[in-house]
């Protein structure tokens, strides 16, 4: 597990280079992509899976160690039942279509979120994906499914209490061990597609010092060009992690200040 000190330090070390160690993405715009083409929303979600696989490969090629994506939020259950059912079925299709290929390419898959509300078949598919990729180290893909940032903090507090952690010992570092993404450093770069400029309850704790990048690109159209544009904005930023950057003024002594006129 990563303590918050280790996670924070790792983020700073990686930020010194041009490539972030951990990228988080809110994959927004599948439904609108389909609607613009007069297609059912489900078609947009299927295209979104293809975009995810492209992005995993592109991130791995660029030396990014961790990619975390928001696939299904805890609020998405409010969508029409037909769409929700289609998304659950798409999980099974995606695992069947892509798991073997990603496993052979060194991708480790982790599922983060509340597994209690999904079917046994979906849980079994997740278990298979995690089991088959457990030894892979090229890149870790964490898929946030039935996840919410507030839920994550509440479940972490409950887990810490159940583990018997005394209140006086519940530091940021200790609580971070119980968060759903405890296996990864905090994200350096947070991307949201689809034109919205909010984080929508995604990684509220972990994104405290993430650089934010918003793009109008709808998720099914996200490609290497869009990824490289986000990476370029990240590389150009001065990450200070809450510290104030001050210019050092020259020191003027009292004697120098009262030099006689020439």
How is this structure best described in words?
The protein has a 6-stranded parallel sheet with strand order 3-4-2-1-5-6, sandwiched between helices. Helix 3 (41-61) packs parallel to helix 4 (81-104). The protein has 9 helices and 6 strands, in the order H-E-H-H-E-H-E-H-E-H-H-E-E-H-H. Helix content is 43%, strand content 14%. Mean pLDDT is 87; it is low at 3-16 and 246-262. The protein has one domain (4-257): Undecaprenyl pyrophosphate synthetase. With 262 residues, the protein is α/β, with parallel strands linked by helices.
Can you tag this structure with a few keywords?
262 residues, alpha/beta, Undecaprenyl pyrophosphate synthetase, six-stranded parallel beta sheet, 6 strands, 14% strand, disordered C terminus
Quick overview:
The protein is α/β, with parallel strands linked by helices and 262 residues long.
Q: How helical, in percent, are the residues?
A: 40-55%
Integer count of domains: 1
Evaluate the radius of gyration.
22 Å
| N- and C-termini, Cα separation | 68 Å
Give the helix tally: 9
Strand content: 5-15%
Tell me the layout of helices and strands.
Elements: H1 4-15, E1 22-26, H2 30-36, H3 41-61, E2 66-73, H4 81-104, E3 107-112, H5 120-132, E4 139-147, H6 149-162, H7 172-176, E5 189-192, E6 211-214, H8 224-236, H9 254-257
Parallel strand pairs: 1-2, 1-5, 2-4, 3-4, 5-6
